[in-house]
Design a protein that fits this description.
- The protein is an alpha/beta fold.
- It has two domains: 133 residues, Aspartate Aminotransferase, domain 1 (Alpha-Beta Complex), CATH 3.90.1150; 256 residues, Aspartate Aminotransferase, domain 2 (3-Layer(aba) Sandwich), CATH 3.40.640.
- 41% of the residues lie in helices and 17% in strands.
- The strands form five sheets. The chain has a seven-stranded mixed β-sheet, with helices on both faces.
- α3 runs antiparallel to α11, α4 crosses α11 and α12 runs parallel beside α15.
- The structure holds pyridoxal-5'-phosphate.
């Protein structure tokens, strides 16, 4: 560190109470109690700058994009394509041609499975995933295996919920054509070594897709540094709107892939004899896109950049540690997912109490957690449980929120003996 840097004033602590004021939805009371929102892994809330950007667009700029010469259509096109450039910068892609707007992570993975996988895969070839994937990164690959005769291979996890890397590396073979892994598990919080996975997969000639749905709100993503071929994420996990997400794909790969949906905007010329397709990225964006969603997503990216992703992550880690320590003091609680590197997702069960009942009791206290299999049924099967309760933290959560969670759990413990 340079002398100047070491003399610099320390950065002020992350002020979650101030951040919280940007999220009007959090001001309400639920069941007569102040809302404690601990379900950001399912969907983040939106801050005022996002709400205002969407309102501004809808109030002043809306028209259909790309096709109009009139002023409003040009304003809408500028807003939409401007959002694409901001996404490119946010993940450091080389070109806007590599940024495809989709509905979300699910659609992005289906696009790659159908457009990259389906035409290329053959019987005897393999797709390698891990045992902690969300259904969105399992089912599209199962479907493409049914269509092509390829085989789905699954690298195991251990009792902590960590990927068994040695087994993963053993399963990588010259037959592996696609590796598709989550960067962060939504059910367990585990952070996967995606850079190492990507390098190993590339050494075997496989193409790598990273499901970044749970990573994007907690870490700075640089797709070129990661070296991945595809990266998928959803706007609503990053404090942006629902119905908008991004597929990043290396240009060379996207250019060689056929379109996956046909219709307006993805074409250059249409005749009954022959249709030619549009340039990247529009070749993959058939139909009128979610324009205000893209505008809102870009505003959300600016918002988290202003707060500082490292500062957000540091704050969330403190909350995770506090909550983990607190849970350990409550009898009968078992934490599911104890990986060394975790994002701010805390899954657990309480002995003698079904997670759904726990969720209902907590809701009566104004504490919103998620209960169920979290779209990761194989993870539940691995741990031999039907479901978990899951608290997840975002930039607006405070230590008081963690205390409210622990108090509500203590109350549930009394109810269930
Ligand atoms: N992948 C992971 C790891 C997720 O957590 C989620 C959503 O919870 C998804 C994929 C699917 O995201 P979406 O429903 O926004 O398409």
């Amino acid at each position: 560190m340079s002398a100047t840097a070491s003399l610099a004033a320390p950065r002020p602590a992350f002020d979650a109470a101030r951040v919280r004021r940007d999220f009007p939805i959090l001001e309400q009371r639920v069941n007569g109690r102040p809302l404690v929102y601990l379900d950001s892994a399912a969907s983040g809330q939106r801050p005022l700058p996002v709400l205002r950007a969407v309102e501004r667009y809808e109030t002043h700029c809306h028209a259909n994009v790309h096709r109009g010469v009139h002023a409003l259509s040009q304003a809408a096109t500028e807003a939409f394509e401007g959002a694409r450039e901001r996404v490119r910068r946010f993940i450091n892609a080389a070109s806007v041609r590599e940024i495809v707007f989709v509905r979300g992570t699910t659609e992005a993975i289906n696009l790659v499975a159908q457009s990259f996988g389906r035409p290329r895969l053959a019987p005897g070839e393999e797709i390698l995933i891990t045992a902690l994937e969300h259904h969105a990164n399992i089912v599209p690959w199962q479907m493409v295996c049914e269509q092509t005769g390829a085989t789905l291979k699954v690298a195991p996890i251990d009792r902590r919920g960590e990927l068994v890397l040695d087994r993963f590396l053993e399963l990588l073979s010259p037959r592996t054509r696609v590796v598709a892994v989550a960067q962060v598990s939504n059910a367990l919080g585990t952070v996967l070594p995606v850079k190492q996975i990507t390098d190993a997969a590339h050494a075997r000639g496989a193409v790598v897709l990273i499901d970044g749905a749970q990573a994007i709100p907690h870490s700075r993503i640089d797709v070129r540094e990661l070296g991945c071929d595809f990266y998928a994420f959803s706007g609503h996990k990053l404090y942006g709107p629902t119905g908008i997400g991004v597929l990043y794909g290396r240009e060379e790969l996207l250019a060689a892939m056929p379109p996956w949906q046909g219709g307006g905007d993805m074409i250059r010329t249409v005749s009954f004899e022959k249709t030619t397709y549009n340039d990247l990225p529009w070749k993959f964006e058939a139909g009128t896109p979610n324009i205000s969603g893209a505008v809102g997503l870009a505003a959300a990216m600016d918002y988290v950049k202003d707060l500082g992703l490292a500062a957000i992550a540091g704050h969330e880690q403190r909350l995770l540690e506090l909550a983990t320590a607190g849970l350990a003091r409550i009898a009968g609680i078992r934490i599911i997912g104890t990986a060394v590197r975790k994002a701010s997702v805390l899954s657990f069960t309480m002995e003698g109490c079904h997670p759904h009942d726990l969720g209902t009791i907590l809701d009566a206290e104004g504490v919103a957690i998620r209960t169920g299999h979290h779209c990761a049924m194989p993870v539940m099967t691995f741990f031999d449980i039907p479901a978990t309760a899951r608290a997840s933290f975002g930039c607006y959560n405070t230590e008081e929120d963690v205390e409210a969670l622990l108090a509500a759990l203590a109350k549930a413990r009394e109810v269930f003996g």
